[in-house]
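Box 3.1. Reading complex inputs
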Amino acid sequence: MSLFEKHSDLIHRAITALHERTFFAAFTEQPSTAVYGETADADGQQKFKAALCKKFEELKQAGPQAWAGQEESPYLQDALKISYPIFPTQTLIDRSKTAFHSWRKVSAEERAGILVESLERIKSRFFEIAYATMHTTGQGYMMAFQASGPHAADRALEAIAAGYEELQRFPAKALWDKPMGKFNIQLNKEWRAVPKGISVVIGCSTFPTWNSVTGIYGSLVTGNAVLVKPHPGAILPIAIFVAEIQHVLAANNLDPNICQLAVDTFDHMITKELAEHPDVKLIDFTGNSAFGSYLEALHGKTVFTEKTGVNSVILDSVEDVDKVAANLAFALTLYSGQMCTAPQNFYIPEGGIQTPTGVVSFDQFAQKFSDNITALVDNPKAGAFVMGAVQNKKTCDRVTEAEKLPGKVWLVSRSIENPMFKNARMASPVVVEVEAAKLEIFSKELFGPIALLIKTKNTDQSIALAQQMAIQHGAISCGAYTTNSVVKEKIADEMALAATPVSFNLVGGIYMNQNAAFSDFHVTGGNPSGNASFTNPEYVTKRFTWVGHREPVAAVKQ
Amino acid sequence: MSLFEKHSDLIHRAITALHERTFFAAFTEQPSTAVYGETADADGQQKFKAALCKKFEELKQAGPQAWAGQEESPYLQDALKISYPIFPTQTLIDRSKTAFHSWRKVSAEERAGILVESLERIKSRFFEIAYATMHTTGQGYMMAFQASGPHAADRALEAIAAGYEELQRFPAKALWDKPMGKFNIQLNKEWRAVPKGISVVIGCSTFPTWNSVTGIYGSLVTGNAVLVKPHPGAILPIAIFVAEIQHVLAANNLDPNICQLAVDTFDHMITKELAEHPDVKLIDFTGNSAFGSYLEALHGKTVFTEKTGVNSVILDSVEDVDKVAANLAFALTLYSGQMCTAPQNFYIPEGGIQTPTGVVSFDQFAQKFSDNITALVDNPKAGAFVMGAVQNKKTCDRVTEAEKLPGKVWLVSRSIENPMFKNARMASPVVVEVEAAKLEIFSKELFGPIALLIKTKNTDQSIALAQQMAIQHGAISCGAYTTNSVVKEKIADEMALAATPVSFNLVGGIYMNQNAAFSDFHVTGGNPSGNASFTNPEYVTKRFTWVGHREPVAAVKQ
């Protein structure tokens, strides 16, 4: 049985799910012993520990020029001392070019089968990847498991399914039979989905697998060779993915260089060398806006970016203000605000928020929100685990700076102690009140656990500001609370024009930060927060070109 | 019955045709009296003549600043003296913005119905459009009828169908029902296809409707407001399209400014003003590479270009060399080489072309090719009608220059007399031999009836040069003649990598210049000849953004 036959049912279920957009998951998001085995967690942790202070020798990339690695654990504030093979950029490109010409001739079916098989293998390493993710990104255990493991694998499967579907969108062959009166002109036609060439996927430090696998699998399924350029601070999680892809390629007598890991170090970053190389045709990037915009402007490249955004919450009227404050406190605190979907700007009318039991004033809501954060942060069973650790020291500096903003500081950031990791780099959320007129303060992303409570004239101004932020500076998510259907449609329409998805009236265990594979398009591509979307048809169709050839059958007399 | 119901069957047949890619045409390409009526041709000619020396008053765009028009007939070498309403750029933009917000709220069904209805109305004006096209572009009567009438309408229908299909690709609503163990999280989700805003479609002087209607209809069906900026030398054909679109819009109580004609004059071109205006989000362009590349580099715009290319013919081996020479002579002579798909570089091995009756030498083929051109040009029943007239005087200059190229001139260009139009600007093809080493001569588009016969070492060099031209300078078409299946696959593969469609072994009444709606992707978007393709999914999906909103149903206990 071929790998395509083995996985065909799953691929087709995934394609159906893409179009139904109801709940679908191929990988179990809970770290369940029933699914993953009694010892899976302990084994994964053990494997992660065994990898420390060693060369990562799983890759099938021969003859490295050097070995290097500079990852540090935000939990330990200490180096992991794992080293990875380093190659000259031209070597990576040359191997990729060679591998491209074998991979592009592999059928779409076979490519899809191989890629799903790699996900099956990666599934057995979800726990190891979880610990690798914790100790590079600072994510809490549960997020690290889910985001880097099952959720990333579902996103990868989504890209495989979308790519495979688009490759089948037009026939491989057709007879074009045109009546001309006394005779027909008949042409045999064929269409080839021609991959673009070498694809470079540039990772980020906070979501090293979730944000990269869609580009990797999207490029691979459409026949491109891929160079995975991880962030120097978060290599191990995606290195395990690449190693497993290479394992399946080699097991199927294919060149493992079809997907290479291109590690660099902070003192010699190779991202620009790769991106500007004339043989590189596709670039996927997650990271800061300046670098993303530089990539988007490169001539002759197809570029997919997820940059930064200014995410808004519009508070108009609510059913239960306490549930709302709790939900938003969690959304802000989760992974210490280091999600690209985390809320930042909270627009609250100066006249307060309508509730069934009367108006909750701006100050009352600010207090409730701050109290909920404090309760969550100080909860010994939840706080440290929800917050995780801070990946980058600069985020802590930004939090400190935020406390100096001109406006009432409702909550100061504290360095909470994580009972399991005494040295963890921690920063609880800071909450600052800002006047709506002080646009310069909130017209930019303040990455980290920073909430700005913006006092607006009314909900119309809140909507206008949220829309303006999204159009001018980008937005990846938006939260809105209203019990008024007219206001709701106004928010839905105005934010749609700003290409920003809105989560309405979320309470309980679901948050505006979360985007589910097969249902939520992550980033829309329609505002400055990024030019691409996981995984819409454009995300995969831009990775190849339809080329049609034709030849006469013969002029047939009628 | 709504217009969507009226045209629903046609729209769905068109969607099916898009995917089957067999022959499909909704509009009859022959100027048949049975289809169009006994007096349609005479009536159309009469209407065209009646439009001369007058204001074009059909548009529903109020209060023009001035009236102007500078069209000249290449057949008469005289001004048409038709004047069109001129508006300040900001007025066009302001009206477009207002119109956008009404049009975007019209359902996809209703939009598609209105647009197909406009094509039905335009059908009754095909002959008038044909004469308008002849006397602006210089096309021969048959091409003018077909390209600007039925073929353009089919291309427009194709864009409507593709857009309508993509708008249905994801559900408007879905229930997302995620099992969480003891309970489910249920979200009501909805997805909106949000149009990008104002779309500017920039026309060219040689195919004023065929090259513009896909962008116009593609943008309109996806909910954008459109500004049609015709070439100042070829306005009337597309003005009739816009007038009919406006007529149907008004008849359905919609703002006719949803699709405006934005005429300018050679002394005050408004293309850059429009393209750079911040409210303009979409740009479609057909024309020269320099301006196309400028547009592609504009920040924050989605740009679709068809620029120039260097189209190759690879001659390796043939069944019947006379049929091949005749076919290529026609392909070059048709509309005096003024098609973006016309052949220019003919690669012939120095050892000659293999045939079943022996080798035909380079010189023998050059002579046969030249003789076929002369016979066609001098044929009183065909020559002048196939050639049409030359749109731009500069093309005649280019032909004259070509005769001075360093290489044997196999055929000089002559100014043939058109029996119906004594003053027609005419130039028959020039054929020049060029050494393969003289890359600088043939590494650019020489727009017009110019053939370069390039003597190569062998077919491998021919393929390599054709590929190199396409990758470096773009190519929209390629002709290839080989009876060897290995050579054929090599050409198919190498040219596919250069994103260039190949027409193999065409003889008889079908030419490499021709691209059929619903089957041939026109321009692939994968080489420098253009970044877009008529009409692949990307051509329409880039005109809108998917935005998903969501809201909890309620937490339901299992």
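In summary: Chain A has a mean pLDDT of 97.
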